[in-house]
Amino acid sequence: MGDEVRNNLKYTDTHEWLKLSGENARVGITDHAQSQLTDIVFVELPQIDKEVKKGEELCVVESVKSVSEIYSPITGKIINVNKKLEDNPEIINKNPYDDGWLVEIKVKDKSEINSLLDAESYKKII
Amino acid sequence: MVLRSALYEIHKRLDAHFTEFVGFEMPLYFSSIKDEHLAVRKAVGLFDVSHMSNVWIEGKDAMKLLSLCTVADVPKYLENQSQYTVILRENGTVIDDTIFMNLGDKYMIIPNAGMSTIVTKWLNDKAKEYKLNAKAEDVSRDFVILAIQGLRSRETLQKITKIDMNNVKFFGCQYGKIADVDCIISHTGYTGELGFELQITPTKKAEIVFNKILEAGAEFGIKPIGLGARDTLRLEKCFILAGNEFEGGRTPLEATLSWLIHWDHEFIGKEAILKQKEKGDYERLTCLECIDKGIPRHGCEIQKNGMNVGIVTSGTLSPCLNKGIAMGYVHKDFREPESILDIIVREKPVKAKVVKPPFVPKDWASRN
Known about the structure:
The complex is a heterodimer.
Chain A: E1 10-11, E2 16-21, E3 24-29, H1 31-37, E4 40-44, E5 51-52, E6 57-63, E7 67-71, E8 76-81, H2 84-87, H3 91-94, E9 103-107, H4 119-125
Antiparallel strand pairs in A: 1-2, 2-3, 3-9, 4-6, 5-8, 6-7, 8-9
Chain B: E1 3-4, H1 8-13, E2 17-21, E3 24-29, H2 33-42, E4 45-48, E5 55-58, H3 62-69, E6 82-88, E7 94-102, E8 107-109, H4 116-129, E9 135-138, E10 144-149, H5 153-158, E11 173-178, E12 181-186, E13 195-200, H6 206-217, E14 223-225, H7 227-236, H8 242-245, H9 270-279, E15 284-290, E16 301-304, E17 307-318, E18 323-330, E19 340-345, E20 348-355, H10 364-367
Parallel strand pairs in B: 1-3, 4-14
Antiparallel strand pairs in B: 2-3, 4-10, 5-8, 5-9, 6-7, 7-8, 10-13, 11-12, 12-13, 15-18, 15-20, 16-17, 16-19, 17-18, 19-20
Helix pairs in contact in B: 2-7
């Protein structure tokens, strides 16, 4: 546990990851982020259909000690949220890149993805 | 300048994640706040709380000075007894809460982190004002303070001392050796569990004690504990954190500490709180257990039917109950046990129930 960075994902310097499939993107927080937060105990997920802008607050993740805002890596509309996290937020600690995803976003402008970090660049900032 | 404990290097070796707390860089956690919290509730944990202060009070009138400056009738506490109390301003608000120890030759008080200069000056000013032959001396940097807390704390310490730990009574204090190092040992703590605290000087000797305790407690699964779990442990027992619960000036009546007040002795602030008691219309510290999901935090508003009736001073997720819990000041008419109030978390109401302290009962570990 700690600093796994996956090659097939895109990253932000605020420690979110994004995985594009077709028109939609799945978003979560990185392994580094979950290990820094420790024991995630609460996730406040956004409403489905909510429009979000790149860099704006997407949802809130709380550890025992702190409240952290998670920022959207991309502009678009929320089409799905990971309901499992409402009862089992610790999934994010166990599996931040698979079962611990946060939301799915219908991407408005795919070109925005070019401004995200690749795995190599993300590794350099953690 | 950031101050560090004399045990900083040991904490680093134990992989501590540090945080700054009122000018001190101290471990926030070593493994995880939750794991450390549960280790203390179920077995035993070791805390370095050297950020807390140490002040000696000595001189012919030391007892009088302490009695004047706290709500405790200090002569009632004999040698080798200690007591939790508060120091008040003339207007009845709390300067600090502290434990004092009667060590026979002199008293030691343990003000909060960052409070030693203020408290020492206050005591010396009052000694002068009331013409008392007593002197307070800030020796905080000369001491390491360790807290060993949990069901297995007594057994752990017993393995490394000749003192019969059963003879150190609740809120007792005495000089003695732990791991062959001179300490002041007290049966006190901030977790609501069986526990002891050690004041150790010179600080370079503390490393030996710290390591020996970890060794002795290994068979019980002892863990080093950071400030994160210290905060969740105290909050589950509704113990006050001075910086939060006294913020902005609160009296012991508001902080529901009237049980500490010996009304039959004279002390600074008495007149003011007597007046407040007669009037009776003050907010009182209240314990709230969340019914809805959500974690209340310091500064969240408390409402009843959309009307503001209070404010949260401390809030967290309780690792034992797995629910949001909070303490806060609530208008006296809205705090009957079982009352339902709303705590406003990120602009949304989280339903919470007024409960009697503590959130987590004494026998929690035996039932979980």
